[in-house]
Write a structure and sequence with these properties.
The chain is of the alpha+beta class. About 25% of the residues lie in helices and about 30% in strands. The termini are far apart.
Length: about 160
């Protein structure tokens, strides 16, 4: 059977319990169609890149599935009919990835408080004395003199 990854976004104003019910409903559709849920992740309430049906946030859920295409088609049909689903995307993949998805890995990194380690081990940067005097920015190097702005006359050329 082919492998699929499916992500859906549910409305922001439904509760997490209702999202779990929706997820169970879609999982049951897949299993009754002869498929199997390999992985199921709830990514949480996240901000959307743009407003969708007057919603600025949405509950994200990921499925990794091994199912026949008929079961996937039925699940997508039910998603289209459900008013609580803002968007969904199902793609066919060659193999399912093991372990947590990238979204869950990023979430676990935040939970551990690794945000301060974002730039590696650079240590204290001090006063940056190696940069020299930054007050003199008049030297333009090879770029030559700047052209005069509109309304400003060129004094050296005239």
């Amino acid at each position: 059977m082919p492998y699929y990854e499916s992500v859906f976004i549910a409305r922001q104003d439904i509760s997490s319990a209702q999202v779990d019910q929706l997820t169970d409903q879609f999982a049951e559709i897949v299993t009754t169609g002869g498929g199997e849920i390999k992985k199921r992740e709830y990514w949480g309430l996240r901000s959307l890149a743009y407003r969708i049906k007057k919603n600025r946030k949405g509950h994200y859920v990921l499925f990794n599935l091994e199912a026949p295409s008929a079961a996937i088609s039925e699940m997508e049909r039910i998603m289209r009919l459900n008013e609580d689903i803002l968007r969904y995307l199902t793609i066919k993949v060659d193999a399912l990835e093991e372990g947590p998805s990238v979204m869950m890995q990023a979430k676990s990194d935040r939970d551990r408080g690794r945000r301060g380690d974002r730039f590696g081990d650079r240590g204290d940067r001090g006063d940056r004395g190696d940069r020299g005097d930054r007050g003199d920015r008049g030297d333009r190097g090879d770029r030559g003199d700047r052209r005069p702005r509109d309304g400003e006359r060129e004094e050296q050329g005239e």
